[in-house]
């Protein structure tokens, strides 16, 4: 074994994964970024440098759509952070209580929406909130709040928030399960030590458990960020590619789909689509780097 | 924790909160399912009532069976999901074994390279993926989807599986080597059976996003004969918006297979998450 020889089995073990991953994921990713520097002029692909990005940010028609989609996307993300994650943490905190009965049953039921497809979720809520069917108005009527009802998905000012809340409803199971797992891994001795010092119940949660699960909350935040900034399916399934009413629910995913694939009267433009993909890539990359270098390295980790 | 300090009021409040949220989570699914078995009139008159002798009707399901090719869609979804999972698990486990078992130049770099895809969504590269699939003639074939989902699933699979493979005892593998087993036999006969629980976790994590994806079927395989169940129900519902019976039945038919799979695998899923597979 002294002389160096090629260990072919290592290459054989690595090759299939590396080939498929490189060919179908990494190469297209960079190829898309490259395509954003080209444009189609007279049926020919011509290198145009950063001109597509200039159009995207400079041309009023394009930039208005882009900033609208980006702003909507941030609002979409903000609602997830403010509603989905706190509810998930609260549910996990209750579920992790020792000797809670039926915990497995609750857990399984709350995860059910997460396994459904966006098409099902989008249409089911569309039907329930529909003023024609009347489930939502009659339920509000039963508690005396009928005046609050509006066709939420059809109004520009509510549609995006409604969709974000539907998405929260669907995905609350993920933060719940991850936090639940983190809470279970807190050793009993730590909590007992706190108890001896008189820290129990709610204050045990705030003072002992919460600091210990902060790294998990960080991971959930970055997962939510990446998931939200390439979201598409729910909006497409319930509002269509035009992300109506009047583009009020347009996010980067639907904007990119419309641009590169074309929709109704608009012709598809793969190069502008690539430019939008490039912008999405940059946003996700910035978010991930902020998390990795800004938050994760500074977070205090406790040896348990 | 002490038995004496459990406050019954607290317990009631906890159950109250959980029951409330469980109802919120299940209510839409329940409404869709019960109404799919009702006549059109009953759907509108009493949307929250269970179907009874009077209001029971299968008309929606009949329309769906007649109009949409749901069995074909279902079959497509099944083929794509099972084949993608197979390749993710096989290729992922092989790469994970190479990374965790052998020391070679560029090991860490290769690990980092493969982990890139955990954070960067494959959708960003869609434009070039479509061009590639058109150039290779794979567009509108199930292979296009299988390749994409395999690539999408590999990074996390390699990451999770190599964590687990590091825990497999070296003594066992070296005993195998002394007995003259080849490296391939060690991998397939000794290591793979030992990491089966981790493989199941990876499978369950990948299964749901693949089954439910709308983006890639819509872009890479929208032809009638390659539609997946998700895309098929999306298109079907879009065409039948005003036929409430058909829409509700189509939704129910899309819900049921996932629900059945969930009931079968939910233990595995929850055990997978809580065992700290995601860190």
From TrEMBL, chain A:
Coiled coil location: none
Membrane topology reported for the UniProt record: Multi-pass membrane protein
PROSITE patterns per UniProt: ABC_TM1
Transmembrane parts of this sequence: 12-30, 74-96, 108-128, 158-183, 212-232, 275-294
Keyword presence, Cell membrane: yes
The ABC transmembrane type-1 domain, residue ranges: 70-293
Pfam families linked to this entry: BPD_transp_1
Principal subcellular localisation of the protein: membrane
Matching InterPro entries: ABC_transporter_permease, MetI-like, MetI-like_sf
UniProt keyword RNA-binding present: no
GO biological process: transmembrane transport
Family of this protein: Belongs to the binding-protein-dependent transport system permease family.
Name recorded for this polypeptide: Lactose transport system permease protein LacF
UniProtKB/TrEMBL annotation, chain B:
Gene: araQ_5
Pfam families for this protein: BPD_transp_1 (PF00528)
UniProt name for this protein: L-arabinose transport system permease protein AraQ
InterPro entries: MetI-like, MetI-like_sf
One GO biological process term: transmembrane transport
Primary localisation category: membrane
Domain ABC transmembrane type-1 intervals: 74-265
PANTHER family: ABC TRANSPORTER PERMEASE PROTEIN MG189-RELATED, ABC TRANSPORTER PERMEASE PROTEIN MG189-RELATED-RELATED
GO-annotated cellular components: plasma membrane
